[in-house]
Design a protein that fits this description.
By secondary structure, the protein is α/β, with parallel strands linked by helices. Helix content is 31%, strand content 21%. The protein has three domains: 203 residues, NAD(P)-binding Rossmann-like Domain (Rossmann fold, 3-Layer(aba) Sandwich); 73 residues, protoporphyrinogen ix oxidase, domain 3; 57 residues, no CATH class. The strands form four sheets. A seven-stranded mixed sheet has the order 7-6-12-13-14-11-15. The two termini are 23 Å apart.
Length: 382
């Protein structure tokens, strides 16, 4: 008989929330984590008294009251509002695209003037956009595309915007108000003390093993529990049977600066093509810090190869076809549950969850909602 009800592979948000729900309902869980710390990509560490987001900025935002109430059971959130700026060859613009942006770019004052300018520039694209460049111009016009989208996007994807498919950008938010709040969601903030506190509280009733690679000892580890929740990449779980899915990766360079305030804002996007990094994070501003020193992190978008840390799925047609093969494989194989949605078969043994297991880019609230849904389905036996 297995020792645990659930073996949960990965200690990011999906695994941690699922584990909390299970232990709250009397189930036993073992968490195994390949890294030397909990939390996946939301892991934070303290440097010079500053909570540093080790794997890039994570701002929690949601309009889902159920999710908001859930996370607030475990930790208090501060009142941080994400208001990044863009730096284009030294010109500073507010994000998202709003009246402050348009006023700086064109010297206009009213929403009517801004709308007329954008509509005039959008009209140069006739017919269905054939690539990302045409799609972006059709949505926001040439000026905004050239200064605030083109260079940043090409750095992110490592390709010219003319070579990227149009569907990557389905919509671009344009606000005809003087409002620099990046998100439209009802609730927003950063956990007081960092995300580590949230993860530790979610997992306080679980057994945890760090520095354990599930795929290196899959058979033995699988025997430790009745069911498996797997939050790694689905292609690696199946030994890359249909080939490797593609991702974009991110490289981080952090440094401590002997100054109190380096850039005056948490996030600066560098939107020209020549600046090698995509953005610079000054972590203390997430928590309104006044420490004598500061920590800044430059983010570099990078090509991905097997063995690198995957960040963003390349959701193009080629990769979706490969993913569909793995999805079919998992559905047809006995005892496999795919995507965190539990099917009727009560003998299912594996739940695939999270952005890697489901090959989707999720905001944090969607990861939590997905985990809560998976847990509820599992507990109800559906």
């Amino acid at each position: 008989m297995s020792k645990y009800d659930y073996l949960i592979v990965g200690s990011g948000l999906f695994g941690a929330v699922f584990a909390q729900q299970m232990t709250e309902n009397g189930k036993s869980c073992l968490i195994i984590e390949k890294r030397n710390h909990l939390g996946g990509n939301i892991y934070c560490k303290e440097v010079e008294g500053i909570t540093v987001h080790e794997y890039g900025a994570h701002i929690f935002h949601t309009s889902d009251k159920k999710v908001w109430n859930y996370v607030n059971r475990f930790i208090e959130f501060n009142n941080y509002i994400n208001s990044p700026i863009a730096n284009y060859y030294g010109e500073i613009y507010n994000l998202p695209f709003n009246m402050n942006t348009f006023s700086k770019m064109w010297g206009i004052k009213t929403p009517a003037e801004a709308k007329a300018k954008i509509d005039e520039q959008r009209s140069q694209i006739i017919g269905e956009p054939k690539n990302l460049e045409e799609q972006a111009i059709s949505l926001v016009g040439q000026d905004i595309y050239q200064k605030l989208i083109k260079g940043y996007t090409e750095k992110q994807w490592g390709r010219d915007c003319k070579e990227l498919p149009a569907f990557i950008i389905k919509r671009l938010p344009v606000r005809y108000t003087y409002d620099n709040n990046y998100f439209n969601d009802r609730y927003q903030g950063i956990p007081v003390g960092g995300y580590n506190v949230l993860i530790e509280r979610l997992l306080e009733s679980c057994d945890v093993r760090l520095n354990v690679d599930f795929l290196q000892d899959k058979e033995n580890l699988s025997s430790l529990a009745n069911k498996i929740v797997y939050t790694g990449t689905i292609d690696s779980y199946y030994g890359y049977q249909y080939g490797a899915l593609e991702y974009r990766s991110v490289r981080f360079e952090s440094e401590i600066l002997d100054e109190q305030n380096h850039q005056g804002v948490a996030v600066v996007n560098y939107t020209d093509r020549e600046t090698p990094y995509t953005r610079v994070i000054e972590h203390k501003h997430f928590e309104f810090g006044t420490q004598p020193k500061t920590v800044v992190t430059k983010e570099y978008s990078a090509d991905w190869k097997l063995g690198d840390e995957p960040y963003y799925p390349v959701n193009d047609e080629k990769n979706q076809k490969v993913y569909a093969q793995y999805e079919t494989l998992s559905k047809n194989e006995p005892n496999v549950i795919f995507g965190g949605r539990l099917a009727a078969n009560k003998d299912e043994k594996v739940i695939f969850g999270g952005r890697l297991g489901q090959y989707k880019y999720y905001d944090m609230d969607k990861v939590i909602a997905s985990a809560l849904d998976a847990a509820q389905r599992e507990l109800s036996g559906k």
